[in-house]
Specification:
globular; Rossmann fold; single chain; about 20% strand; alpha/beta; about 190 residues; 7-stranded mixed sheet
């Protein structure tokens, strides 16, 4: 990151760091993926303010089970805990080292479960609001779309941030894709499972 951009982003970085620390530790930075051969992308974080904008028009009910696919270090889980403290939250992370650190950090929250492994195999049947921050490539997303349908998909909503691969959803009439407005950094969509 160049110096000018770092200076411009300093207030956001400080706000994110302060919110991270409330849930155990600073979570900034990117971890290069060790699972690129499996279609996984680098481990990164959305900013808290961006998550707020992203979910502004997404209805999350008290009985919804929120699933963070590609949970990484767990910043989105932190945000879900702050906004939906009574909901069950499930994080799924492919990188075993990152997953174990995240699971350990969040273990004191009884409503949070962090699963280590492939989201196409671990997607919980009762997950109703699924969050993706572009965790994997298009072939894996296609398998994930099938997993959504296979595991009692009807009525699920997928909040897809930095949606680079909408094709598997757009090509299947069992999904409805609605662009989400208001995010600053990345194109986003809400995908309904019919």
């Amino acid at each position: 990151m160049n110096l000018r951009r770092t200076i411009r982003r300093a207030p956001t970085i400080v706000r994110n760091a302060a919110r991270d620390v409330r849930y155990g530790s600073f979570l900034g930075g990117t971890i290069p993926t060790r699972q690129a051969h499996l279609g996984a992308h680098d481990v990164g974080n959305a900013e808290y303010d961006e998550l707020k904008r992203l979910f502004a028009d997404v209805e999350v009910k008290p009985d919804d089970v929120i699933v963070d696919v590609g949970a990484g270090k767990g910043r989105a889980i932190n945000w879900f805990l702050s906004q939906y403290p009574g909901n069950r939250i499930v994080g799924i992370e492919l990188d075993p080292e990152v997953c174990m650190r995240t699971a350990t950090r969040l273990q004191k929250h009884a409503n949070v479960t962090v699963l280590c492994g492939d989201a196409t195999e671990l997607l919980p049947d009762d997950g109703t609001v699924i969050y993706l921050f572009n965790p994997f490539d298009e072939p894996v997303l296609a398998r994930f779309a099938e997993a959504l349908l296979r595991t009692h998909g009807e009525g699920r909503r997928v909040v897809y941030y930095n949606c680079k691969f909408l094709g598997p959803f757009e090509a299947d009439e069992r999904f409805e894709v609605v662009p989400l407005e208001g995010t600053r950094n990345h194109r986003s969509a809400l995908v309904y499972v019919k």
